[in-house]
Design a protein that fits this description.
34% strand, 3 helices, Jelly Rolls, nine-stranded antiparallel sheet, 299 residues
Length: 299
Protein backbone atom coordinates (compact mmCIF):
# COMPACT_ATOMS: atom_id res chain seq x y z
CA UNK A 1 0.00 0.00 0.00
CA UNK A 2 1.49 3.35 -1.03
CA UNK A 3 1.99 6.27 1.35
CA UNK A 4 -0.70 8.22 -0.49
CA UNK A 5 -3.19 5.42 -0.04
CA UNK A 6 -2.30 5.19 3.64
CA UNK A 7 -3.01 8.88 4.09
CA UNK A 8 -6.34 8.59 2.25
CA UNK A 9 -7.44 5.66 4.40
CA UNK A 10 -6.43 7.36 7.64
CA UNK A 11 -8.16 10.60 6.63
CA UNK A 12 -11.34 8.71 5.83
CA UNK A 13 -11.31 6.95 9.19
CA UNK A 14 -10.74 10.21 11.05
CA UNK A 15 -13.71 11.67 9.21
CA UNK A 16 -15.79 8.70 10.29
CA UNK A 17 -14.84 9.31 13.92
CA UNK A 18 -15.86 12.95 13.74
CA UNK A 19 -19.08 12.15 11.90
CA UNK A 20 -20.02 9.60 14.56
CA UNK A 21 -19.42 12.21 17.24
CA UNK A 22 -21.49 14.78 15.36
CA UNK A 23 -24.41 12.41 14.92
CA UNK A 24 -24.59 11.01 18.43
CA UNK A 25 -23.17 13.78 20.62
CA UNK A 26 -25.80 15.60 22.67
CA UNK A 27 -24.32 18.95 23.61
CA UNK A 28 -26.72 20.75 25.99
CA UNK A 29 -25.50 24.16 24.82
CA UNK A 30 -27.31 23.62 21.52
CA UNK A 31 -30.69 23.55 23.29
CA UNK A 32 -32.22 27.03 23.54
CA UNK A 33 -34.19 25.91 26.62
CA UNK A 34 -31.05 25.22 28.66
CA UNK A 35 -31.20 27.34 31.84
CA UNK A 36 -28.35 25.79 33.87
CA UNK A 37 -25.34 23.62 33.04
CA UNK A 38 -22.91 22.91 35.84
CA UNK A 39 -20.20 20.60 34.55
CA UNK A 40 -18.69 20.47 38.06
CA UNK A 41 -15.25 19.81 36.61
CA UNK A 42 -13.49 22.57 38.55
CA UNK A 43 -10.11 21.53 39.94
CA UNK A 44 -9.50 24.59 42.12
CA UNK A 45 -11.24 27.71 43.42
CA UNK A 46 -14.71 28.34 44.80
CA UNK A 47 -16.83 28.91 41.67
CA UNK A 48 -19.06 26.32 39.97
CA UNK A 49 -19.27 27.69 36.45
CA UNK A 50 -22.57 27.69 34.60
CA UNK A 51 -21.94 26.97 30.90
CA UNK A 52 -25.43 28.07 29.83
CA UNK A 53 -26.06 31.52 28.38
CA UNK A 54 -27.63 32.62 31.68
CA UNK A 55 -24.33 32.32 33.60
CA UNK A 56 -25.94 31.34 36.89
CA UNK A 57 -22.57 30.58 38.46
CA UNK A 58 -22.62 28.81 41.81
CA UNK A 59 -20.33 28.79 44.82
CA UNK A 60 -18.28 25.77 45.91
CA UNK A 61 -18.49 25.70 49.70
CA UNK A 62 -15.91 23.91 51.90
CA UNK A 63 -14.29 21.84 49.14
CA UNK A 64 -10.55 21.34 49.72
CA UNK A 65 -9.86 19.36 46.49
CA UNK A 66 -8.31 16.41 48.27
CA UNK A 67 -8.89 12.68 47.85
CA UNK A 68 -12.13 12.98 49.81
CA UNK A 69 -13.40 16.40 48.74
CA UNK A 70 -13.44 18.13 45.35
CA UNK A 71 -12.70 17.14 41.78
CA UNK A 72 -11.96 13.51 40.91
CA UNK A 73 -11.24 11.61 37.70
CA UNK A 74 -12.59 8.13 38.38
CA UNK A 75 -13.95 7.16 34.94
CA UNK A 76 -15.86 10.45 34.67
CA UNK A 77 -14.87 13.93 35.87
CA UNK A 78 -17.14 15.09 38.66
CA UNK A 79 -17.34 16.80 42.02
CA UNK A 80 -16.78 14.69 45.12
CA UNK A 81 -18.85 15.66 48.18
CA UNK A 82 -17.34 14.48 51.46
CA UNK A 83 -20.68 14.06 53.29
CA UNK A 84 -19.49 16.35 56.09
CA UNK A 85 -19.84 19.96 54.95
CA UNK A 86 -19.36 20.17 51.14
CA UNK A 87 -22.10 21.71 49.03
CA UNK A 88 -22.75 23.94 46.02
CA UNK A 89 -25.02 26.99 46.18
CA UNK A 90 -26.45 28.68 43.07
CA UNK A 91 -28.17 32.05 43.65
CA UNK A 92 -31.85 32.37 42.85
CA UNK A 93 -32.80 33.50 39.36
CA UNK A 94 -36.02 33.63 37.35
CA UNK A 95 -34.73 30.80 35.13
CA UNK A 96 -34.46 28.46 38.13
CA UNK A 97 -38.02 29.16 39.31
CA UNK A 98 -39.35 26.24 37.32
CA UNK A 99 -42.99 26.42 36.40
CA UNK A 100 -45.02 24.79 33.62
CA UNK A 101 -42.48 22.25 32.39
CA UNK A 102 -38.85 21.31 32.90
CA UNK A 103 -36.22 18.59 32.75
CA UNK A 104 -33.42 18.04 35.29
CA UNK A 105 -30.60 15.74 34.21
CA UNK A 106 -27.38 14.75 35.99
CA UNK A 107 -24.83 11.99 36.54
CA UNK A 108 -24.63 10.58 40.07
CA UNK A 109 -22.33 8.17 41.88
CA UNK A 110 -23.08 7.07 45.46
CA UNK A 111 -19.85 6.83 47.45
CA UNK A 112 -21.36 5.91 50.80
CA UNK A 113 -24.96 4.59 50.91
CA UNK A 114 -26.85 6.69 53.49
CA UNK A 115 -28.77 5.30 56.47
CA UNK A 116 -31.29 8.16 56.27
CA UNK A 117 -32.55 10.59 53.61
CA UNK A 118 -29.79 12.77 52.16
CA UNK A 119 -29.93 15.68 49.68
CA UNK A 120 -28.75 15.56 46.08
CA UNK A 121 -30.22 18.74 44.59
CA UNK A 122 -32.92 21.12 45.77
CA UNK A 123 -34.22 24.61 45.03
CA UNK A 124 -34.21 26.12 48.52
CA UNK A 125 -32.90 23.05 50.36
CA UNK A 126 -30.16 25.12 52.04
CA UNK A 127 -32.79 27.01 54.04
CA UNK A 128 -35.81 24.83 54.69
CA UNK A 129 -38.28 22.84 52.58
CA UNK A 130 -37.33 22.94 48.87
CA UNK A 131 -39.57 23.89 45.95
CA UNK A 132 -38.30 20.87 44.07
CA UNK A 133 -35.62 18.39 45.06
CA UNK A 134 -33.89 15.11 44.28
CA UNK A 135 -33.02 13.10 47.37
CA UNK A 136 -31.21 9.90 48.28
CA UNK A 137 -33.09 7.76 50.76
CA UNK A 138 -31.70 5.12 53.11
CA UNK A 139 -29.80 2.42 51.27
CA UNK A 140 -29.54 4.37 48.00
CA UNK A 141 -33.12 4.91 46.81
CA UNK A 142 -33.58 7.94 44.56
CA UNK A 143 -36.56 10.17 45.30
CA UNK A 144 -38.13 13.26 43.73
CA UNK A 145 -39.82 15.78 46.01
CA UNK A 146 -42.11 18.57 44.79
CA UNK A 147 -43.67 21.32 46.90
CA UNK A 148 -46.80 22.80 45.36
CA UNK A 149 -48.00 26.40 45.50
CA UNK A 150 -50.38 25.31 48.26
CA UNK A 151 -47.44 23.97 50.32
CA UNK A 152 -48.38 20.34 49.88
CA UNK A 153 -45.63 17.80 49.14
CA UNK A 154 -45.56 15.00 46.58
CA UNK A 155 -42.89 12.27 46.46
CA UNK A 156 -41.97 9.80 43.73
CA UNK A 157 -39.52 6.98 44.51
CA UNK A 158 -37.56 5.31 41.71
CA UNK A 159 -36.01 2.42 43.59
CA UNK A 160 -32.50 1.57 44.72
CA UNK A 161 -29.45 2.14 42.54
CA UNK A 162 -26.07 0.40 42.99
CA UNK A 163 -23.32 2.35 44.75
CA UNK A 164 -19.80 3.03 43.47
CA UNK A 165 -20.89 3.41 39.84
CA UNK A 166 -22.18 6.27 37.68
CA UNK A 167 -25.91 6.55 36.96
CA UNK A 168 -27.83 9.08 34.91
CA UNK A 169 -30.79 10.63 36.77
CA UNK A 170 -33.46 12.44 34.74
CA UNK A 171 -36.58 14.17 36.06
CA UNK A 172 -39.31 15.58 33.80
CA UNK A 173 -42.36 17.69 34.65
CA UNK A 174 -45.25 18.84 32.48
CA UNK A 175 -48.90 19.63 32.99
CA UNK A 176 -48.76 18.75 36.69
CA UNK A 177 -47.21 15.34 36.08
CA UNK A 178 -43.61 14.44 36.78
CA UNK A 179 -41.56 11.34 35.98
CA UNK A 180 -38.18 9.94 36.97
CA UNK A 181 -35.68 7.93 34.94
CA UNK A 182 -32.47 6.20 36.02
CA UNK A 183 -30.06 5.41 33.18
CA UNK A 184 -32.80 6.19 30.69
CA UNK A 185 -35.15 3.60 32.16
CA UNK A 186 -38.27 3.58 34.29
CA UNK A 187 -39.52 0.68 36.31
CA UNK A 188 -42.30 -0.55 38.57
CA UNK A 189 -40.29 -1.96 41.47
CA UNK A 190 -39.99 0.37 44.44
CA UNK A 191 -41.86 3.22 42.74
CA UNK A 192 -44.91 5.06 44.02
CA UNK A 193 -47.44 7.02 41.98
CA UNK A 194 -49.68 6.24 39.06
CA UNK A 195 -48.50 4.09 36.20
CA UNK A 196 -49.26 3.68 32.52
CA UNK A 197 -47.66 2.31 29.37
CA UNK A 198 -45.81 4.72 27.07
CA UNK A 199 -43.95 3.45 24.00
CA UNK A 200 -44.29 -0.07 25.33
CA UNK A 201 -42.69 0.71 28.69
CA UNK A 202 -44.31 0.99 32.11
CA UNK A 203 -43.88 4.54 33.37
CA UNK A 204 -44.59 5.78 36.87
CA UNK A 205 -45.98 9.27 37.29
CA UNK A 206 -47.15 11.49 40.10
CA UNK A 207 -49.51 14.45 40.03
CA UNK A 208 -49.07 17.79 41.79
CA UNK A 209 -50.48 21.30 41.80
CA UNK A 210 -48.34 24.11 40.31
CA UNK A 211 -44.84 24.13 41.80
CA UNK A 212 -43.87 26.58 44.50
CA UNK A 213 -41.66 29.42 43.23
CA UNK A 214 -39.56 30.93 46.00
CA UNK A 215 -36.54 33.23 45.96
CA UNK A 216 -34.31 30.67 47.67
CA UNK A 217 -31.02 29.51 46.09
CA UNK A 218 -30.54 26.13 44.44
CA UNK A 219 -28.31 23.85 46.50
CA UNK A 220 -26.48 20.64 45.67
CA UNK A 221 -25.37 18.28 48.43
CA UNK A 222 -26.94 20.05 51.42
CA UNK A 223 -30.29 20.21 53.22
CA UNK A 224 -30.72 22.57 56.17
CA UNK A 225 -34.09 22.40 57.96
CA UNK A 226 -35.73 25.70 58.86
CA UNK A 227 -34.12 27.39 61.89
CA UNK A 228 -31.69 24.47 62.27
CA UNK A 229 -28.14 25.00 63.54
CA UNK A 230 -26.70 22.10 61.53
CA UNK A 231 -27.19 20.79 58.00
CA UNK A 232 -27.41 17.36 56.36
CA UNK A 233 -24.88 16.45 53.64
CA UNK A 234 -24.23 13.60 51.19
CA UNK A 235 -21.15 11.52 50.36
CA UNK A 236 -21.65 11.38 46.59
CA UNK A 237 -20.13 12.41 43.27
CA UNK A 238 -22.08 14.55 40.79
CA UNK A 239 -21.29 15.55 37.22
CA UNK A 240 -22.99 17.56 34.45
CA UNK A 241 -26.08 18.98 36.13
CA UNK A 242 -28.38 20.41 33.46
CA UNK A 243 -31.80 22.04 33.79
CA UNK A 244 -34.05 22.79 30.82
CA UNK A 245 -37.26 24.81 30.64
CA UNK A 246 -38.87 22.14 28.50
CA UNK A 247 -39.87 18.52 29.01
CA UNK A 248 -37.84 15.80 27.35
CA UNK A 249 -40.16 13.26 25.82
CA UNK A 250 -40.09 9.63 26.88
CA UNK A 251 -38.73 8.63 23.45
CA UNK A 252 -36.07 11.35 23.64
CA UNK A 253 -34.74 10.07 26.97
CA UNK A 254 -34.74 6.46 25.82
CA UNK A 255 -33.02 7.55 22.60
CA UNK A 256 -30.24 9.28 24.55
CA UNK A 257 -29.47 6.04 26.37
CA UNK A 258 -29.43 4.01 23.17
CA UNK A 259 -27.36 6.64 21.34
CA UNK A 260 -24.77 6.59 24.12
CA UNK A 261 -24.45 2.79 23.89
CA UNK A 262 -24.17 2.85 20.09
CA UNK A 263 -21.63 5.67 20.18
CA UNK A 264 -19.30 3.75 22.49
CA UNK A 265 -19.45 0.67 20.26
CA UNK A 266 -18.85 2.60 17.03
CA UNK A 267 -16.03 4.72 18.41
CA UNK A 268 -14.30 1.62 19.81
CA UNK A 269 -14.63 -0.06 16.40
CA UNK A 270 -13.29 2.95 14.48
CA UNK A 271 -10.36 3.41 16.87
CA UNK A 272 -9.47 -0.25 16.37
CA UNK A 273 -9.48 0.30 12.61
CA UNK A 274 -7.25 3.36 12.99
CA UNK A 275 -4.72 1.53 15.12
CA UNK A 276 -4.70 -1.46 12.78
CA UNK A 277 -4.22 0.75 9.72
CA UNK A 278 -1.37 2.65 11.36
CA UNK A 279 0.40 -0.57 12.32
CA UNK A 280 -0.03 -1.93 8.81
CA UNK A 281 1.03 1.31 7.10
CA UNK A 282 4.10 1.95 9.26
CA UNK A 283 5.20 -1.63 9.85
CA UNK A 284 8.78 -2.64 8.94
CA UNK A 285 7.58 -5.30 6.48
CA UNK A 286 6.74 -2.51 4.00
CA UNK A 287 10.37 -1.46 3.96
CA UNK A 288 11.46 -5.06 3.39
CA UNK A 289 8.92 -5.48 0.61
CA UNK A 290 10.05 -2.27 -1.11
CA UNK A 291 13.68 -3.38 -0.76
CA UNK A 292 13.09 -6.71 -2.43
CA UNK A 293 10.78 -5.47 -5.18
CA UNK A 294 12.60 -2.28 -6.24
CA UNK A 295 13.67 -2.51 -9.91
CA UNK A 296 17.37 -2.56 -10.69
CA UNK A 297 19.02 0.24 -12.60
CA UNK A 298 18.80 -0.13 -16.30
CA UNK A 299 16.08 -2.74 -16.18
Amino acid sequence: MSTRKNIIVLSFLFLVVFEVGAVFASDPIDDENLVLWLKLDEKIGDIAHDSSKHKNHGKLVNFDFSETSGWATRSRPGLLFDGIDDYVEVPDSKELRLDKEFTIDMWLKIISPPNSTRPILGKGSCSGPPDYAINLRAGGEVQVEIRSSTDTFIWLNMGFIPSYDWHRITITYKEKYFRMYVDGRTGSIGMSGEGRFIDGQYVKEAYTDPIKKSSKPLCIGEYRPSNATSAIHSNIMISNVTIFSRTFSHSEIIGQRESTDITLVLISFVISLLVGTLIYALGPWHLDKQKHTSPKKGS
